[in-house]
Amino acid sequence: MKEMFVDKLNVPSGITFDDVLLLPCKSNVEPDQVDVTSRMSKNVSLNIPIVSAAMDTVTEADMAIAMAHEGGIGVIHRNMSRERQVNEIREVKRADELLVRDVVTIAPNTSVQAVWHLMTKEKVSGIPVVGISKRLPTPSKSSDLVGVEVPLPKELSDGKLIGIVSRRDIRPIVESNPTKKVEKVMTKDLITGHEGIPLDDALERMYEHKIERLPIVDKKGNLKGMISMQDILHRHQHPRAIRDEEGRLMVAAAVGPFDVERAVALDAAGADVLVVDCAHAHNMNVVNSAKVIKKKVGADVVVGNIATAEAAEELVGFVDGIKVGVGPGSICTTRIVTGVGVPQLTAIASVVDVARKHKVPVIADGGMKYSGDIAKAIAVGANSVMVGNLIAGTDEAPGRTMTIKGRRYKQYRGMGSLGAMSGGESSDRYFQEKRGGLGSTKFVPEGVEGAIPYSGTVKDVTHQLVGGLKSAMGYIGAQNIGEMHKKARFIKITPSGYKEGHPHDVLITDEAPNYPIDE
């Protein structure tokens, strides 16, 4: 018998954040006892289950660095040139590098004047003196420098560290004796560290000898890099930071579904996760191209966005993570413009039921307005959440700052907005292309541009988001994310129940950091 069109309307209900609440359960768990570590992908663990969105008003290097410091991870957006995105990845990787390998050095027969100019140019107070210099400037005029290679004695041609010269060493003679060679004034009795020296040992050695930088040498005495006390102390300030095997901050990057060359370049630059980023990853052309990307890179590959179990079935055989969400974002109009989407909690649960059989982590992307929504997303099986709106108002977000009616705001726009699609390189996310000579109105936008209230630093915001999640886990009796998945139960609420849950019958005079007042 032929299916009647009326049968298409015999449909299940879809559930999203405001439709349900988590049921409080018997618990012996305090919020400060819970463990919120989780995974973004098969091989990338997180100390907090929060990922910053790949949006051009949310995540560039500053945001990614801040997120990694707090134990989450940032996904560098792709609405920029390939070269710039590669540089953003490199900036994150260099941010917390303890051993600085690209050290400016000089030869022993470099003049005092040349060294003084080099210190001024590089904004350093001291320079190692080695057998082979990476930069050997000699003065051609009293006020000019030209980089030339100075011949070195054979016994010094192996890069061996033989001294350090500081501003203090040369300041008294830079004008009176500018041609004097640094080997006559450099410090030769050096305090060094060996390759692989523990951080605590390096710090103790610097304290003991009252030095701020420790040269690191190999067994032959060749200079391998420098460690500074400031960098070690800075690292101690971020005990939850996520780092790769080399101790560098971890970072993810978005790539277009068909941009294999960009994916390879980002992988080579050190990206730990590549997020194949499009609005509809159940498109089989996207799936096939993502398989090609997976074969060509060493980084984990996350693919999204999807919203159904059927889509998950197509991906679980090769991906390292799945991103869920079609149209839930605060600046997304996909569901209105196209009539397509799945309420977010139903979408997450549907995908998780397939993904968990294959041990593929799931990222819930979008729709969360409060920390309680993060708890709900994890309760239905998500391993982490991707947020844009919740952190776009921070100092680290790249959106421009503006003042409206005396209050500070930051720019926030969807990647399907006209501005994002016409002004960058990511219109293919919505399977649309720029065409020469056609105006931006030829795009069919699936997002809007706006502004959200300024919210401080990423550290402050993530503290509130994670604090809300921990409190929820305490109510449920879950000591970790795995127990949250197993123990959490929901109750469906009415519009009156929803209204009852928010502050009511009162004029709020002092805004709470985790409950912004809508204006």
Q: Can you tell me about this structure?
A:
- This protein has 519 residues and is of the alpha/beta class.
- The chain has 2 domains: 12-96 and 241-501, TIM Barrel (Alpha-Beta Barrel), CATH 3.20.20.70; 112-229, CBS-domain (Roll).
- The chain has helices at 61-70, 82-95, 112-122, 167-170, 199-209, 229-236, 260-269, 284-296, 309-315, 334-338, 344-355, 371-379, 418-423, 458-476, 481-487, 495-501; strands at 20-22, 38-41, 44-46, 50-52, 73-76, 126-130, 137-141, 144-147, 161-166, 193-194, 213-217, 223-228, 252-255, 273-277, 300-306, 321-324, 362-365, 384-387, 401-404, 407-413, 449-453, 490-492.
- The strands form 7 sheets. The protein has an 8-stranded parallel beta barrel, surrounded by 7 helices. A 3-stranded mixed beta sheet has the order 10-11-12. A 3-stranded antiparallel beta sheet has the order 19-20-21.
- Helix 1 (61-70) runs parallel beside helix 2, helix 9 (309-315) runs parallel beside helix 11 and helix 12 crosses helix 14 (458-476).
- The radius of gyration is 28 Å and the shape is elongated.
- Residues 133-158 have low confidence and may be disordered.
Strand proportion, as a percent range, falls in: 15-25%
* Number of E-type strands: 22
Major sheet characteristics? 8 strands, parallel, barrel
Q: What is the count of helical runs?
A: 16
Q: Give the number of domains.
A: 2
Rg on CA atoms, Å = 28 Å
Termini distance?
Answer: 55 Å
The residue-averaged pLDDT reads 89
Looking at CATH, the homologous superfamily of the largest domain is: Aldolase class I
- Tell me the structural class: alpha/beta
The CATH topology of the largest domain is TIM Barrel
